[in-house]
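chain below, 186 aa
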Amino acid sequence: MTWHVVKLADVAPTPWRNGGGVTRELAAWPPAGDWNWRMSVAEVAQSGPFSKFDGVERWFAVLAGAGVRLEVAGQAQTLGATDPPFCFDGAAATDCQLIDGSTQDLNLMLQKSRASARMLRLGQSYAGIVHAPKTIAIYAINTGASVLFNDEKLEIEPASLAWRSVNETAQVRVIAAQSLWMEITP
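prediction:
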């Protein structure tokens, strides 16, 4: 399978019902209807509660802005643009307080009964072996990213997502000053 590349600037924003921000859906699988996983970038303009998603595991990473203070089921978590991604139960009551103005955040949501994942914030490089079956994804934040997948090379522009299915074991190397790495297991 080949890479799917989505530039953030090419995706139209969808306003939230509560007026607190907008979301740009970058990818979902399967692409129509009831997804197993979904990746999006949210622009949070004001503090307030997150929507509840029963049966969903959520990964959250700040891309830009001073950050947020999340309160998930009564537990506080402060996140900024250099902190590791945070995983939490989408069904939990979650409140988001902006620290100093709006933020831009990447969200990975998974139906817990159909998929699991991990997300890492990369500083300079990452190298690893990916075992099939999986879906891998790289989001290049403010700088581009170079990806070597076995012998195949891919250049990703800033503010872009690249993802693909992995059907057999592969070696992967990512070089990027600021990026997020995701692995999704069915």
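The CA atoms of residues 73 and 93 lie 5 Å apart. The first strand starts at residue 4 and ends at 7.
thats it, cya
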